[in-house]
Amino acid sequence: MNNQSFPYSFEPQANASPAEDLGFGNKIGQDVRRLINRDGSFNVRRSGAGWRSIHPYQLLISLSWGKFLLVVTLFFMLVNALFAAAYLAVGIEHLAGTSGPEASWIDHFGEAFYFSVQTFSTVGYGAIAPRGHMANLLASFEALIGLLGFALATGVAFGRFSRPSAKINFSPHAVIAPYQDINAFEFRVVNERKNQLIGLEVQVVLSCSHWDGSMWVQKFYPIELERSKVTLFSRS
Asked: Which of 36, 71, 163, 187 could form a disulfide with 174 if both were Cys (CB 3.0 to 4.6 A apart)?
């Protein structure tokens, strides 16, 4: 399927020759990376999809905790900076308790920003208060945005905490060794957490590159396992 009929294109995240890039490889080539990371995420870059493929909730759920906290902090600072600019546009004199006209623009912006933070978070120390219809209307709208914003942030944070995740570790080496009357491909897996995994199913796929005379072609072969499913995965 060419790129004209398919809107997505997938690119490997490292330079590798077609013979070395097996799709699911780990250390086939020097620069080849895993298609599936150890945490279960896909090591794939997507291009050509556009902004329509971005889902805000899914993006916030899948971000690391550091990036998630950074996004929340930047959003909090940006919203309060915009409301501070709106208070200055209405007029700093409509905020009772601020410095007089002799103060600099930076001082006025700081006072409007901190008042916005207090309003957005519904803290409201009372040192600065809106005065007039426009300032009160703007403060009321900001309080509404703050309540909705904190509710959404709390919901996303709860979704991140409550999202189930498995911590399955594989043996560092797989072996081909005698087993009963045959030679078997053997490896071990273990559940590193104390949670209970029920109905665990395993699929193993062999990835190979074949030269068909004109180009390298990737082939994937499902491997039949002696035991592909266990009811309780409490031991290795």
From this structure: 187
